[in-house]
Design a protein that fits this description.
Layout (H helix, E strand, L loop, with lengths): L4 E3 L8 H10 L5 E2 L3 E2 H6 L2 H4 L9 E6 L3 H14 L3 E6 L4 H5 L10 H12 L6 E6 L8 H13 L4 E5 L10 H4 L7 H10 L4 E5 L5 H7 L5 E4 L1 H5 L3 H9 L8 H17 L4 H5 L12 H11 L7 H9 L6
Parallel strand pairs: 1-9, 2-4, 3-4, 4-5, 5-6, 6-7, 7-8, 8-9
Helix pairs in contact: 4-6, 6-7, 13-16, 15-16
Length: about 325
């Protein structure tokens, strides 16, 4: 079955603990790492940066960078580690990313991105894909987007994740860039209609199953960002609608299924708080949700904390939650 639901790469959020948790909620969603720079992978501790649990498959590694040789080396490391896809970040608008000459500013240099795609494709057999915006600053029209897409199709990329907002590179924070520029879904629809042979995945502003169902009439997949993080139970709704269709697990059962993972990771040196922070929204909208969040927030950071913290927090919840 071809994937329809994709979980966005989110800096400081979609680490391996988060992805393990999300996989329990959605067996079929395509997961993405937070962005890792090519420089960090080629000059740093790549084994640590690339670590993931086998249950995460299918999972993509998102890389930031613009040097074709370094991007190829980073892609090779990711492929060797077992990732299912390598994704190039051409969407992040932060000053730090711009100063490193990658992210959304690269939309203005389609041939440079294409060089990276060619170099990466020459060393890996897994798909090399691109996550991009619909435009940047005053370069904000369909023709500009098509020139960028066409250059990279020629280089061998046939899957594009398109955030349906332009990026404003000066004057807006990354957070504002996720909400202030208006959404233009029609531009993404047109891209798919004009290039039906490509896989086009739409990202931006998707918060309900009905939203996703509407967009899937026009594109191949939808990518969910912060809604999946703050309201993780949303993933089970998506799974029912577009994935396996199986009945969702109980929220309590999800916590129980996390316990062996938590024990294993703590034994390997992980801090409990780094795992539980991703689970705070699990009971959102349910009786006892505030107490669940408060107990984890107040206790997960304490020295010596283990699965007992989760078990105590769970015991405080009504069984029907």
């Amino acid at each position: 079955m071809k994937n329809k639901i994709y979980i966005a790469p989110m800096m400081d959020w979609t680490d391996r603990h988060c992805r393990y948790f999300m996989r329990l909620l959605s067996p079929s969603a395509f997961l993405y790492t937070e962005m890792v720079t090519a420089a960090a992978l080629t000059h740093g501790d790549s084994k640590k940066l690339l670590q993931f649990d086998p249950s995460e498959h299918p999972v993509a590694l998102q890389i930031g960078g613009s040097d074709p040789k370094m991007m190829a080396d980073a892609a090779q490391l990711g492929a060797d580690e077992g990732y299912d896809e390598i994704n190039i970040n051409v969407g992040c608008p932060s000053d730090r990313v711009q100063s490193g000459q990658f992210g959304a500013c690269l939309m203005a240099q389609p041939e440079l991105v294409a060089e990276c795609v060619r170099a990466m494709n020459s060393v890996v057999d897994i798909p090399v894909t691109i996550k991009t915006r619909i435009g940047i600053d005053d370069l904000d029209n369909y023709d500009f987007l098509r020139r960028f897409i066409d250059a990279n199709v020629d280089a061998g990329c046939n899957t594009f994740i398109v955030h349906a907002r332009k990026a404003i590179l000066a004057g807006l924070s990354p957070k504002e860039n996720r909400t202030v520029p208006p959404l233009d879904y029609d531009r993404v629809y047109r891209l798919k209609a004009d290039l039906p042979e490509l896989t086009i995945i739409l990202n931006g502003g998707l918060t309900t199953v009905d939203d996703c169902r509407l967009h899937l009439q026009h594109v191949d997949g939808v990518m969910i960002g912060r809604q999946a993080y703050h309201q993780p139970w949303f993933l089970t709704e998506l799974e029912q609608a577009f994935g396996s269709g199986s009945a969702p697990p109980d929220r309590h059962d999800i916590v129980e299924r996390m316990l062996p993972y938590v024990e294993r990771e703590i034994a390997a040196g992980a801090a409990l708080k780094h795992i539980t922070r991703h689970m705070l929204g699990l009971f959102a909208g349910q009786p006892g949700a505030r107490g669940w969040r408060r107990y984890l927030s107040e206790n997960a950071h304490k020295v010596g904390g283990g699965i007992d913290v989760l078990e105590t927090a769970l015991a405080k919840l009504p069984q029907a939650a």
